[in-house]
Design a protein that fits this description.
Elements lengths: L1 H7 L1 H26 L1 H7 L2 H14 L1 H9 L7 H6 L6 H25 L5 H39 L5
């Protein structure tokens, strides 16, 4: 997204990078839907697959949305996992676009403005990135627990159908 913002500008870069992201999301969803867990075993370690099963398949669409929205220890495995759920493709795509669009817009705006950065901007940008990476590294287990709590809270608010 940073590069597309730099090359194409904020608006066109966002449109192009979201288009690529959406196409990739559709491909991974359909591949997982067609091949099942066999394909996922090539891309994800068994421990990650087990964690995905345990959390995402049981927690439902809201948890998938949170995993797509917030950087998480599962990474891009969420895109493949969604194909193993019973989510309709259109609903999944809505989740992907709603969750990925905000950060994509910000990244493209930064990319579009990167040539006007002076040394002060670069230092501040680097410090922010380092702090965010460090915080994520230190607290990724807590992030996962918070995501689970949010998903369980959302699940308890939904009406029961049984």
């Amino acid at each position: 997204a940073l590069v597309s913002g730099y090359i194409f500008g904020a608006f066109k870069g966002t449109v192009l990078s979201m288009s690529g992201l959406t196409i990739g999301a559709i491909i991974t969803f359909l591949l997982a839907r067609i091949t099942g867990r066999r394909l996922l075993r090539y891309f994800l370690p068994e421990t990650t697959l087990n964690r995905l099963d345990r959390y995402t398949l049981k927690q439902g669409p809201f948890f998938l949305f949170l995993l797509l929205l917030i950087p998480n220890p599962l990474g891009d495995g969420v895109y493949y996992l969604a194909g193993l759920t019973n989510l309709p493709l259109l609903f999944y795509l809505i989740l992907v676009v709603l969750s990925r669009l905000p950060s994509n817009i910000v990244n493209n705006i930064i990319g579009a403005k990167v040539t006007s950065f002076n040394i002060y901007h670069w230092i501040v940008f680097a410090i922010i990135i380092i702090i965010l990476v460090l915080l994520y590294y230190l607290f990724n287990n807590r992030i996962e627990k918070i995501l689970l709590r949010w998903a369980k809270g959302q699940e308890s608010r939904e009406p029961r159908t049984d």
